[in-house]
Amino acid sequence: MGCSRRRTASKPCLSSSQRPRISSSPIWLRPYLSIQFKSQFPLFPWASFLICGTILGFWFTKASEEKKDALRMKWFGILAVAGIVLSIGAEFMPVTIYPDHNFWRASPEFFFVRLGCVVLALAGLWRIEQWRHSSSSSLISLFGQESLLVYVVHLLIVYGYDYEFSFVRKFGPTLGYAQCIGLFAALTVGMYLLAFVWHRLKKWNMRVAYAVEVCVLGGIVGAFILQ
User: Do 148 and 141 meet the contact criterion of CB atoms below 8 Å apart?
Assistant: First the structure.
């Protein structure tokens, strides 16, 4: 069987007998290893983003303590651009060591392209904060402080297959550029308002915020059990 990657059908690939047999693994483990079992974010490669974020966060914190954060961010940007260029270049090589795969969903090259884009965004947002001396209520600072809440809620809104209000259920998995930009803008505004209200609530009264958190988590667990 030829490779399924775009414009790389002539690249040699591993035979089917050499590929790992995901279907033979326990059913509870399969979604963590492959998107074939209705897993939007399997363990590989998504755990790599978490690991890279941890490493970059450690390096940045250490650089900040040594007053070298500006130099470190400069190097982050340089390495990000280099990673993107090398990854795109590797995709056009006539030979690959990987088995047949989809470039946009399971490609090692695309992983480094996405990682490079995230690191470039990180360096750019840091530069904006330094330039504007952003307050704690600014878009960047607020999203940074309430990142866990925004991360979880936005995933439910975009990919919540079991929720009627999710983007996937309402608009389908494929959209045009104009639709994506519009939904992105609406989601950004909504997540900012959510983060702002939650941040203010915690500042006003932590006991009330804690009660709200317990009620919401209890409702989610209850709904999961009952359904």
Answer: no
Query: Contact, 116 vs 87, CB < 8 A?
Result: yes
Closest CA to 122 of 137, 108, 140, 109: 140
Structure tokens at 131: 């330039």
pTM: 0.65
How far apart are alpha carbons 197 and 202 in whole angstroms?
A: 9
- Secondary structure percentages of the chain, helix, strand, coil, to 5: 70, 0, 30
pLDDT at residue 117, as a whole number: 92
* CB contact set of 30 (below 8 Å; sequence gap of 6+): 22, 23, 36, 37, 39
Q: Is 18's pLDDT higher than 60?
A: no
| The dihedral sign for the CA sequence 120, 122, 125, 126 | negative
Most confident of 14-23, 158-167, 190-199: 190-199
